[in-house]
Automatic annotation (TrEMBL):
Belongs to the band 7/mec-2 family. Transmembrane segments: none annotated. This is Band 7 domain-containing protein. InterPro entries: Band_7, Band_7/SPFH_dom_sf, Erlin1/2. It comes from Ceratopteris richardii (Triangle waterfern). GO terms for biological process: SREBP signaling pathway.
Length: 221
């Protein structure tokens, strides 16, 4: 005889998002911070529904999502400094949590698939937060100053190149002008030489003509 069904529980096998809020987290250095919200997108595979419910009940996600994320976050915080959690590894913590939860789920509850984990930026004491803000402001100023320095250097190089170009241009103009003057002087000199040659030739011609005239007159007498 088959047993009567006395209780019915709907089990979701599509994607679901579980939210864990206000998780306290003590860092390696002893600073207490709070994570406002962690979102875990997960799914229960159809073929593992019976096995998962049999082993962990219909509230399986309490064990493998809510409680597990608390445990993993606490381990992560206690092993890292505030600097690492708030700055250095802030962009890695989502993937670290996803891999940590999925690793144990694969081993003990293979029907649970962790799709993604989203961890919000932690809330830290106001005085410490202000220190980090000031550090961030100073860090932002450095590349700005560096870029400004690069611009100044670039402008100086541009002005230098422009000055060199102008100097070379002026030198070329001066050289052309000097060559022109030299050519003009040589032209005037050559013209004078030609005129002198013409004058001498004419004077020689006149002298020769006068000589022949005198000789003829002498012969006639």
């Amino acid at each position: 005889m088959l047993p009567y069904v006395t209780r019915y529980e709907p089990i979701q096998v599509t994607l679901q998002t579980d939210e864990v809020k206000n998780i306290p987290c003590g860092t390696k250095g002893g600073v207490m911070i709070y994570l406002k919200k962690i979102e875990v997108v997960n799914r229960l595979r159809k073929e593992y529904v019976y096995e998962t419910i049999l082993n962990y009940g219909v509230k399986y996600d309490k064990t493998w999502v809510y409680d597990k994320i608390h445990n993993e976050i606490n381990q992560f915080c206690s092993a890292h400094s505030l600097q690492e959690e708030y700055i250095d590894k802030s962009d890695q913590i989502d993937e670290i949590m996803k891999e940590a939860i999925q690793r144990d789920c694969t081993r003990y509850a293979p029907g649970i698939e962790i799709i993604s984990v989203r961890v919000t930026k932690p809330s830290i004491p106001r005085t410490i937060a202000r220190n980090y803000e000031q550090m961030e402001e100073e860090r932002t100023k450095v590349p700005i100053a560096t870029e400004m320095q690069k611009v100044v250097v670039k402008e100086a190089e541009t002005l230098k190149k422009k000055a060199v170009t102008e100097a070379e241009k002026d030198a070329q103009v001066s050289m052309i002008y000097m060559n022109q003057k030299v050519n003009e002087k040589e032209s005037i000199k050559r013209q004078q030489e030609i005129e002198n040659e013409i004058f001498l030739a004419r004077e020689k011609s006149l002298a020769d003509a006068n000589y022949h005239r005198v000789m003829k007159e002498a012969e006639a007498n």
